[in-house]
Amino acid sequence: MTELIEEKQLDNIATWMIPIKETNFPSILKGVFFMDGNPLPDTCITMYNLEWNMQSRTLVLPTFAPLQWTFHNSIAGWILLRLIQWFKVTYKIQFEDETLQQAQITPVLLGIPISKLVVSSTMSQDKNSLNGDIWHRNNVWFGGLSRAGEYTLRKVVDKDGRYTPAFNDMLTRVKNECLVIAPYSN
Fold first, then answer.
1. What's the CA gap between 91 and 138, in Å, rounded?
2. For every one of its 186 residues, what pLDDT tens digit does the chain have, with 9 covering 90 and above?
3. Nearest to 156, CA basis, from 52, 9, 10
4. Cα-atom radius of gyration of the chain, to the nearest Å?
5. Nearest-angstrom CA–CA distance, 107 and 91
6. Which long-range contacts link 167-171 to residues 24+ away (Cβ below 8 Å)?
């Protein structure tokens, strides 16, 4: 594991969690999202720089990729970040249809998809958010024994790199310092 870990600030996230390559990604999924209510020590994600499969309406989100995910600058954040790296945690996100309103999320650890019998995760666009600013992340564990780990994704930086109204709300609820996996150096 040679990836470097960097400390960053969330108050300027639009300057560093940015697209670094052109993709055919749907604009509704572009931007930076705050995981509002997430019980784990991670805060923001982006789906920038990922390849979008238009035929299957699928993308693969590697949580261990550079500048893809932010973690709390805490012992718990460091532990989660290292576990994600070691287990190469990835999410396969497959949308039901071309409206991109509802998706099934399959966690993948060490290249092995986790069965829906263990956890069935979904992502649904809020009905009052037609531009993709709000998504609900739901989990059903072991056929309904628990719904732990649910939260709301709120877009805090839009596809044009501008802060949304949810940005300032996020800053009032989380610590500004975060950890990220650094971009690869040449």
1. 14
2. 457 999 999 999 999 999 887 788 888 999 999 999 999 999 999 998 888 999 999 999 999 999 999 999 999 999 999 999 999 999 999 999 999 999 999 999 999 999 999 999 999 999 998 788 999 999 999 988 888 899 999 999 999 999 999 999 999 999 999 999 988 765
3. 10
4. 16
5. 5
6. 167/34, 170/10, 170/34, 170/36, 170/43, 170/44, 171/10, 171/11
Asked if 60 and 92 count as a contact pair (C-beta separation under 8 A), the reply is: yes
pTM: 0.93
